[in-house]
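Handout, tutorial session.
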Amino acid sequence: MDTKIPAAMAEPDMPLAQQLFEQLRSDNNALHGAAHGITRDTYGAGEQRAHELMASTARRLGLEVGTDAALNLYLTLPGRDRAAPVLMTGSHLDSVPRGGNYDGAAGVVAGLSVLAGWVAAGMQPQCDVTVMGVRAEESAWFPVSYIGSKSAFGLLGADALDILRLDTRRSLREHLAECGGRPAGIADGEAHLSAERIAGFLELHIEQGPVLVEAGEQVGIVTGICGSLRYRHAHVLGNYAHSGATPRSHRHDAVAALAEVIARLQQDWAQMEAQGHELTLTFGQVYTDAQQADISKVSGHVSFGVDVRSRSVDSLQCMERHLLDAVAAAERKHGVRFELGERTGSQPAHMDAALQDELQAAAEQLQLTHCRLPSGAGHDAALFANQGIPTAMLFIRNGNGSHNPDEAMALDDFAAGTRALAQVMAARAGLAAKA
């Protein structure tokens, strides 16, 4: 791959990137204190401050700044041909409660640092290049996948506006309006983006697992993004009874029934992997009723949540069949009733083969250690890919995983990955010196 641009002329602005990371952390600490990790709450003060920081930075660089009905942020360096499809990069700016500073934000900071380098070097792309700061990617706040990116394409749906934020118990509609968004535009299916007007989407992100760190690789080229199948608010209903006075034959034990389902599905998971399926299964929440449960009672009520992820729709469907079979068997055996509740999830996505090759070529040219790997976590890039847009993701190695305060991305690794991103963006956007 040859961008025909001397590398030194258009280096990403790493001092700016470092300043932005430091300011993001400082803004969080002003809201929540330094001892509790990073909380950039969706459609709340944390996410809002991050978007304001990126917008003000873009204005100083002379970029065009815009938003849509959902308040997704668009920071654009105009191209020579403004009618041409736009090249996009970016990521989300919200975080899970008490998460880390780099999850999501690294992709927006990377995009801005690339454009800042181009502006400083007097370079202009052939097409518009836009950094997108996506809203509401983390479903830890509102239990819906990809609120921001779905809204950008007019795909969210009016019903989602009535969903309650899990901590405030106020609706998405209320939170969005309070931040200055336009719920009516989302309800009407207003689309700010369309696939035919986007030449490609590239998302830089920290890796959220241990693969790159353990392999000693600086960057990872993502092959695909897992979809998910979730029952977030499931229950097992049995009967409360005295722990000493109720024999086994007369019990309707909700805990025993759920334990049996979990154990059976662990076996099914192992068997599926042996058959060649690639998936994960997680029971991330399991709890009894704090008001009624007691050591001297047979439990009559257990709540739980189950999360299944895979790049294969067939694998997701196969595990769901196992789940339903296990639930039915446990109901018959223990005399309980399972209420799984609403089924939610997201579609798997495959990354564009040509963009994967271009990212690999850039990594090799920059002498970065690299590998290809799937993403077990969901990302907005999946939504773009499933609209038929050429899409790619570049992972930066990151110690201690993610969704915790101890994310440990080295700025040298970030700089290296951003240079690889910049090379592909420059080639795709036709970057050249201003006339």
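The second record follows below. Compare its token runs with those of the first.
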Amino acid sequence: MSPIRFTTEERLLLWLVALGFFMQSLDATIVNTALPSIAASLAESPLRMQSAVVAYALTMAALIPASGWLADRFGTRRIFTLAALLFALGSLACALAPSLGWLVAARVLQGLGGALLLPVGRLAVLRSLPREKFLEAMSFVAIPGLMGQLLGPALGGWLVEALSWHWIFLINLPVGLLGAWAATRWMPDLRDGTSGALDLAGFAMLTMAMVCISLSVDGLGGLGFRHVTVLVLLLAGLLALAAYWLHAARAPRPLFAPSLFAVQSLRVGMLGNLFARIGSGAMPYMIPLLMQLNMGYSPAQAGMLMLPMALASMASKPLVTRLIHRHGYRRVLIANTLLLGLLIIGFALMTPGQPLWLRVAQMMVFGAVNSMQFTSMNTVTLKDLGPHQASGGNSMLSMVQMLGMGFGVAVAAALIAAFQQWLGTPDPHQSLQAFRGAFVCIGVVTMLSAGIFWQLDADVPQAGGASASAGTNR
């Protein structure tokens, strides 16, 4: 088979979408390493900074369901340009933040732009390129995203030490402005006049459910809500979720049709993604904090420690396809989820005197297993969807991925705060035991989520089946 060749216009579009994916993925990881330095500058506790991470992930999760409609209604060129400008403006506001409240609001603005960059760019690629080029095109776009995840923690730590924490946001300005300018020249202006009206009622209910449930979890940690406030928020979120489900069952064009859940693998995959990602989302937040607060690491050293995890994550991608072909999704996901939970519990055994080689090996093993978890969960969720279900299923998966990441950070912060209170250690620099308790609890929750994957049908995919969706890396 001859190699796929892209025209000049197609290649420019792919580079543009890749740039957007790079910005989004870089900013999702670069902040974690800088949190202690940002906290010191804003006179906050480092263990109260999770709201800056949760706000970004939650905003992205809330806006992703509307991204396709916005592109269809206003055109891919206009929305992608607006997304890049919002991302740059939000980054500037983050760098100028004088308080945690300002920073959280700026991260929301940044998340509004980030939520639109990849979905709208991916939609433009899907509609502009012939179908036989789509797989190679998305593989091309995915590489900068992986590089963003790889470079984020180390770059964030280096910028904090070499310059200041403000530069982890300021570096987005030229990239965002360049992306906006390039979009006006090379992004095709694609629309779909048959898209109809946005399901505003469903969008409002779903957004309210995500915000209230996230705030209820975050309220147990850094926000310091009283238990009655947490309970009211949780009930409001569950009520909004139930209302959306009833609404979607009767709406002519809901955001996510209930018929999607008639697909057994999607039901299991979505629930598994949500709960298993709590552990995966918590680790990039907890490890840099633990290293800097209790292990004596500098920001740059803590960021560099995340590199082995990212490298092992990329290297393990081909292995998961062979394992699924041999053992099937059900066995692989059950075993891998249990192993992932055990590895998370293993981080509770970390000590300041641990040799560096052992710490690096621990990070590499976790990165490889975590990557196999992502690929397996994402693939099993989408593998049985028909052509008319693929768009809705993919958007829902993207939303659940960001929601799971936000929940992971919020749960981790709540657990650390709870263990600090129980152990009587309010000083963040004496919180090693609180981190250990949080690692154990999150690891146990991850292991229990293996029970969700137990519900999968026992199957061994046909050749090529596992790789069709494996480009969904996160």
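Points raised in discussion: The chain has 17 helices and no strands.
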